[in-house]
Amino acid sequence: MSARKSNRIGIAVVEYQRQFLIGVRDAHAPLAGFHEFPGGKCEPDESAEQCAVRECLEETGLKVTALQEIRYEEHAYDHADVQLHFWLCQPVETQTVFTDQNLKGFHWIPAKHLLDLRFPEANKSLIELLVNTYASE
């Protein structure tokens, strides 16, 4: 990685019944148009786990519990160097997971369809892991 500052990013990989919560990056954001999991930059005194849970609530309105870190990636993009902490999460309240449609632009996507989406390069090994683990019928 280069000498520029590296951003710690907490990412909530929210799984429920073999489906994942996926959004599309805003047109004005870096990597615009790419698919994404909820997540963002960690605050100075915040763990990546805490960040993933907080960012998921802020971005989707969904409260989640972080179960375990399932992948860590360092990647140098043109716009920034990133340390990506991917946390497997599950919704806290499951009764209304699929009926509550107010997820602020995020949608539930079956694992078997993740390979059809356009994710940033740093997500490649994670997507392969998720498909191999969750896409079997």
List keywords for this structure.
alpha+beta; 137 residues; globular; 7-stranded mixed sheet; mutator protein; 36% strand; 7 strands; 2 helices; Nucleoside Triphosphate Pyrophosphohydrolase
- Please give the CATH class: Alpha Beta
Query: In whole angstroms, how far apart are the ends?
Result: 39 Å
Q: Report Rg.
A: 14 Å
Full CATH superfamily name: Nucleoside Triphosphate Pyrophosphohydrolase
User: Largest beta sheet, briefly?
Assistant: 7 strands, mixed
Bin the helical content.
Answer: 10-25%
Number of helices: 2
Organism: Gimesia aquarii
Protein name: 8-oxo-dGTP diphosphatase
Pfam families: NUDIX_4 (PF14815)
EC number: 3.6.1.55
What does this structure look like?
The structure is a single chain. This protein has one domain (6-134): Nucleoside Triphosphate Pyrophosphohydrolase. It contains 2 helices and 7 strands, in the order ββββαβββα. 18% of the residues lie in helices and 36% in strands. The protein has helices spanning 48-60, 124-134; strands spanning 6-16, 19-24, 35-36, 39-41, 64-76, 81-91, 107-110. Strands 1, 2, 3, 4, 5, 6 and 7 form a 7-stranded mixed beta sheet that branches. It is globular and about 45 Å long. The longest helix is centred in the middle third of the chain and has 13 residues, at 48-60. The mean pLDDT is 92. With 137 residues, the protein is α+β, with helices and mostly antiparallel strands. Strand 1 and strand 2 form a beta hairpin. Keywords: DNA damage, DNA repair, DNA replication, Hydrolase, Magnesium, Metal-binding, Mutator protein. Belongs to the Nudix hydrolase family. Its cofactor is Mg(2+). Residues 3-133 form the Nudix hydrolase domain. GO terms for molecular function: 8-oxo-7,8-dihydrodeoxyguanosine triphosphate pyrophosphatase activity; 8-oxo-7,8-dihydroguanosine triphosphate pyrophosphatase activity; 8-oxo-dGDP phosphatase activity; 8-oxo-GDP phosphatase activity; metal ion binding.
